[in-house]
Every structure is written in C-alpha cells, then in structure tokens.
Amino acid sequence: MNRCALALPMPMPKPRPAAPAPVRSALACLLFVLALFCLPGRVAAGAPAEVLIPIHVSAGTNLIHLARDYCRDRNDWRRIAALNKLTEPYLIIRDTTLQVPLSLLVAEPLTARVAAVNGPVSLHTGDGRTVPLNKDDTVAAGQTVVTGPDGYTHLILPDNTYTRVEPEARFTIAYLFRLADGTIKADFTLDRGGLVHWVRQKLRANDTFQTRTPIAVTGIRGTEYRLKSEGSEANTVETLRGRVEVAAGGRNVGLAAGQGTRVRAGGTPERPRALPAAPAVETIEPLYRTLPMQIHTPAHATAKRFRLRLTSDDQGQATAADQVVAAGSAFTIGTLADGRYFAFLSALDAEGFESAPAGPRPLTLRTVPPAPLITAPQNNGSLWGTTGRIEWLASDQADHYQVELAADAGFSRLLDRREVREPRYTSPQLAPGEYHVRVRTVAADGFETLFSLPVAWKLAPVPDMGTMEATANTRPVLQWPAMAEGWQYDLQVASDEAFTTLVFAREGLTATSCTLEERLNPGTYHVRLRGTVNGQPQTPWTPPQQLTVKPKPLGWEELLMGVVALGIILL
Questions:
Q1: Distance separating alpha carbons of residues 263 and 248, to the nearest angstrom
Q2: What does the alpha-carbon distance between residue 37 and residue 41 come to, in Å, rounded to a whole number?
Q3: Is the model more confident about 260 or about 11?
Q4: Hey, where are the domains in the chain?
Q5: What is the pLDDT of residues 82-96, one digit of tens each?
Q6: Helices (H) and strands (E) in the chain, counts
Q7: What are residue 518's phi and psi, to 5 degrees?
Q8: What is the pLDDT of residue 16?
C-alpha cells in the first residue's frame, strides 16, 4: 500500500460544465466497483511510487476532454492513455473508470475538522512531530491520528461526512482533495483500532471514499458502517445504513444494512451474516443523581455483551464515555460532569459482531447538590423524651429540605412529612418505640436529590429517678427503672450541668439503684445515666436531673450553743 503526502498545485481553474450523466448499466457499475478498489500502482518498474486516482468517464467524454477538464496540462492525455493501455484518444468505453496519476491532476486539498476530543489523542503531522489533538484543529493529508486508551475523536469531513476514531486506533488520511468537477476523492488508512464512517449523502459517480487496512479495502457510496482492525490479523466490517463493499484476497463482498463480515489475514471476506438485533433502551433512566452512575443491561436473546456510548450531542459526534460489559451486569460510569447526555446502546453476539445502536436516549446527570448527610442521631441510636430532634449537614445550594418520618424501614407507614428551611427537624409528640427518618435537598430550580441514607433510632422516656433530695449527714440513694433486660448502667454525679467536675462516678452497675459512698455538701448536683452492654454504651446520657442536698438539721446541742452565743452577743 502506497502512502504519500499531497503536494498540490496552484489554485484550481474554473471548472468546465460536466457532460450529462446517462443511465449506468449493470456492466458500468461492475467496472466502477472494480476500479474503486484498485490499489495505487507504479508507472514503470523501478520508478517511484505513483498514487493513482480513479476518474469516472461519462458518455461523450474522451481522453483529450479528460485531460482538459482535470489535468494541469492538456497533453497529459498521452500519459493517461499509456497507463490505461488505450491507443485511441477518442475511443473510451462509456461509464468506465480510468486511473490517473495524482501528480497530473488539478486538485484542491481538503482537511478534516476536529469536532470533539475526549481522552488522550495525538496527531502525527507527517514531518516528524507529534502534538496533542484539540477541538477545532484540522487534519490534513499525510497526517495520522493516534488515540490512546479511552481516547476518542470525531472528524468532520467535506460534504457533512464524519468519522469517529475509537480508542487505541491509528488512522491516517492518505489523500483528501476536490477535483475540478467538484467531486471529492478520499482515501484513508486504519492500521489498528476501530472507526465509524458516516457519509450522509449518496456519493456522485466520480466521488471516492475508501478505507484501507493491512488486509482489506472498504468502500462506500453513501452509508454508515463500522470498521474494526486487529492490525494484520483480522478486520470486521458492520453496515449500519446503506451498502458497503469489502475487497480482500481478490474477492469483493457487498454488505447491506444490518450485515457484517470478517476478513482474516491472507483470506477473503467471509459470507455476510446478520448483525444482532438492536437492544431496548428502557433500562436507561432519564435522570441519575449520583456517581458512579449505574445502568443495568436489558434482556436480549443473543447478546453476550453490551456497549454503552454516552455523547454530549444527539448526533453521537462527541463521545463522553464508552463501556462494554457482560450481559446481565451493569455499566458503571465513575467520572462524568453534570449535564445532559445521549445514550447509544448496542448488543454484541458471541462472535463479537455488534448491532446497530439503539438511541439516542436522552438522560441527565445531576449530582449537585448531593443527598444530605444526617449527623444526629446516630443510626440505631436512642433519644430520650417524647420528641426526636434530627440534624444534617447544610447545603449552600438548598432552597429547602424534605423530611420523612416513618414507623418502618420501608417508609410505607409515614408519620410525618415536612418541608423545613434549616438543616434540623423536631418530630411531633411520639410514643416510645423505633422510628426511621430520611431527608432530601430541594434546590432553587426545583431539583430534588435522592433521599439520604435512612437513620433508625429509638425513642425512650427519660428514666425517672423521682424526687432526689438528701441531707448533708446522709448518703443519697439513687434509683431508676430498668432500661432493658440484662443491661448495665453508668452513673455520674457532678457539681455542674456540663459534668466537667464529677463528684461521683460508677460504671457497669448491674442493679437499678446506687448508694453514694460519700456524704455531699449542701447544694445542687446533677445526675445522669446511660445503659451499657459489655461495657459498650447502648444509649446516650440521659438529660441531667437535679439532686438537692440540704443542710443537716440542728440538734439540742447546736441549739443550746446558739442560744449561748446569742446571749453573749446581746450582753
């Protein structure tokens, strides 16, 4: 296979009107197909390689007219005649195709525009340089696009044709130019990897659009197809729209829409086979609120794997993510910016042939603001009293929050549903028991996040220790009702409500009463309690309760001494 960079001539002269095109016969179509896949040859043995361009010749045209209309020198008809083994300049079979050296043609060089890039993609410029490929760059003849793992690029070609180059591919524009009659000649090389060509309009008789791999040539007249090259091992061609011709080993095979073939090294194209049916896309939801985003594969009769491609446009030209997973599993997209996307889903059979993609299926990823995180109470914790107080982390993007309180984990028995502005909530009066709560954020534009992870908690009445009073000459006895069978208790008595100064503390009490070992000075003390199992707290500390220690009552000796002291003062 010959490759060369275009060194094209001076500005193109104004083209002459083309001759009218007659109805082509079956013989003419066959001749065209054969000419379409002719590889560049050499002018003579030992001469430098010469790129040959197929030129379609309509009825009423001869060699002299061809040279006049397409070449820089009218006398080039002689060289064209010699190359094509023609002796008469005026005798040409109508609707045939001649091979013309590129160096003789008046041609306008064209480029491909980079419409989108995702991941690692580089451009080999043809002069030894390698540079990153960016959106809105151009790719010219003789330049090579190389994609890395997870690298994609979409190229817009003349006449609204596009090519998607997939990961780990090497794709070269061998030549791309416009002739004097306005037709376009395009020849590409795919050394490895995969691509999708989409020629949106039917090509004209003199247009050429073909892609070469190390083992085959694929040409089209107006279609969409996939080409997957395994280097020098095998090629897979899958027609999505229109018709494709695959040439290898001296044999041509035509593929209609929905058909595919494989070409192995040294062989010919296999017999066309039907591609798998496109899968259903109903498993793809319209809205995803979290990352990683998980999309489950649908049921399919023959699929062994599925491929999901997400693009930022409904034409599928800007790939944002691409994954292949086994049937019955789920796509997991871990890194993706919030936004609107379009999903294209295809099925792959046991032989690796891939269906036409189903889609585009629009979806939205919205992860900001995230679901709230409840900070209190702790999951499976306990609260004391007749109401529960719930708190969560605030979001600066929240307009308000929605809170749901339920008697069951499935939230089928709702007890309260409320909207609050602040990141806290106090329940209505509740009986002792187990409750469940969850919260979600509502943004200013009405977007609702997922609910938070639900939190289960128990509401228990504060253990009533009764009226706690003592005198300075007695040891107080504290009593409380049992919290649960088999539990132990931690008890603290402090001189301050913050319990920074403890005057008495015991852990692991097995009884529901405790006698303080030391007499307390008169004053007000604070008492709290918590339930434990094997030394591990099962409840928070109860709200503090007050213990009042009164002064010791006066006896007759103290009264007598008081009277004597008073008498002395009065004297």
A1: 7
A2: 12
A3: 260
A4: 26-104, 287-365, 376-460, 469-550
A5: 888 887 776 666 677
A6: 4, 43
A7: -120, 145
A8: 39
